[in-house]
Predict the structure.
Amino acid sequence: MTTPFDVYDTTLRDGAQQEGLNLSVADKLNIARQIDRLGVGYIEGGWPGANPKDTEFFRRAREELRLDNAVLAAFGATRRAGVAAADDPLVAALRESGAQVVTLVAKSHDRHVELALRTTLEENLAMVRDTVTHLRAEGQRVFLDAEHFFDGYRANRDYALEVLRTAYEAGAEVVALCDTNGGMLPGWVADVVDDVVSTTQGRVGIHCHNDTGCAVANTLSAVDAGASHVQGTLNGYGERTGNADLVNVVANLELKAGRPVLPQGLLREATRIAHAVAEVTNVPPASRQPYVGTSAFAHKAGLHASAIKVDPDLYQHMSPEGVGNDMRLLVSDMAGRASIELKGRELGFDLSGDRALVDRVTARVKDLESRGYTFEAADASFELLLAEEVEGARPSYFEVESWRVITETPGAADAEAVSEATVKLRAGGARIVNTGEGNGPVNALDQALRGAIGQAYPEVAKFQLIDYKVRILDQGHGTDAITRVLIETTDGASSWVTVGVGANVIQASWGALVDGLTFGLRRAQVR
Ligand SMILES: CC(=O)SCCNC(=O)CCNC(=O)[C@H](O)C(C)(C)COP(=O)(O)OP(=O)(O)OC[C@H]1O[C@@H](n2cnc3c(N)ncnc32)[C@H](O)[C@@H]1OP(=O)(O)O
Ligand SMILES: CC(=O)C(=O)O
């Protein structure tokens, strides 16, 4: 019989221990459904009894959570010292959670038993034995998280192994060795796991924190040494520096080690799921996250792009489709002709037959970037530049005559400033003068400009400014510095980013606003 291999997700428990992360019951149910679609075997839902939210999560999960792939696990501690397992209220909450699997955290480091539990080594073994036996008798499957196992093994190998043996003998299916303080390195983990597997003959799992930046590597090392159960979290969320990123772990196992651990085809959902979970946690996804980050397959250097034009594999360790990600070409002052050509292709322009045109666009990008523009973050402004070069004129739906903005306060020290903007332009064959008010000059300008253009193009009513970023580019000049503004606009279905640069923040904002509306109208196919 082959040993099973478990992929165990603890996003909703250890992941939720991340600073700044606060999940409602509805969030947890939503995340559980997303993670289930990745095909993991187990989802640890939280610690019932420790707080009302986690208790409520398990109650609602019983009624409304239907998982296709995963089994729900409840996390909790061994009974308290000196109390029968059946009488411990936190053990009762595990029993009553309705979870098929209970994962018990137990001390395996002698110093922790004495200092943190303030009990004897023998009583700690009894706590493990009694709690596992009790829950097994109640019909639950039991996994054990051996807390601080690696540090405990170094301090007192015999005792650390005795804790594991006690758990196995009482009926624990798997014991996950925890690098709770996250201080281990891959070679150390491998040596310990190897010893545990050969000494106990039990099924060994691994739970790593990322304090040395090695959580994923340590997990893979443990698997090489015989672990058959891996724990981790989506996006590497977790206490302090986080846990092993479960997507990285399974992608490495499946795509590098040739070891299928998820149902076939589901790894291709990884990018979508990692980003969907980030939406719920409201933690912005890290763009440089391996495999699923937006930069994971983004290419900036001209030399890279020129080789990618021949074969993307020349500068990629794998095809991004394997994890549901996309290759992206970035246009910047590091671009060469190949970057421009490939980016053009991505945006629907075939530039391959026109070397002079590609040279012109490359030169313009480099010149504009040297003056403070950035196109790698502002695809929409780049598309307008490209359209201008390809089509011979910049896409234009309105002609600006002038604009101005003033900011006024009534005078009292705590009075709120109000900005008012006036825009004069020609659009749809008419001269339009429009004013707008806002809580700041850019807001007022946006109102005035959209109001004016909207009179000729009603589509503009759908457009909304959703992000505004300002960066001072030459701090040495103080208030004379060049300002770069990036604006993100949405039409409700998609969004796009434009850039403006100027010595004056309002002027830079105006450039980005005009590009934003022009791009939106072009996308809406207004002619
Ligand atoms: C390594 C990990 O990440 S494990 C997961 C950690 N997660 C959490 O702590 C989040 C949820 N925790 C909680 O809500 C609370 O800590 C509770 C409800 C579990 C306990 O709360 P309290 O009773 O107020 O105690 P407190 O938070 O101070 O925890 C210490 C108690 O837990 C006991 N304890 C610690 N580890 C264990 C263990 N593995 N088995 C049994 N008891 C344990 C300690 O002996 C101490 O008991 P005492 O109060 O009788 O001296
Ligand atoms: C159990 C757990 O989360 C740890 O030891 O890190």
The first strand starts at residue 6 and ends at 9. The first helix runs from residue 25 to 38. The mean pLDDT is 95. DSSP finds 17 helices and 16 strands in the chain.
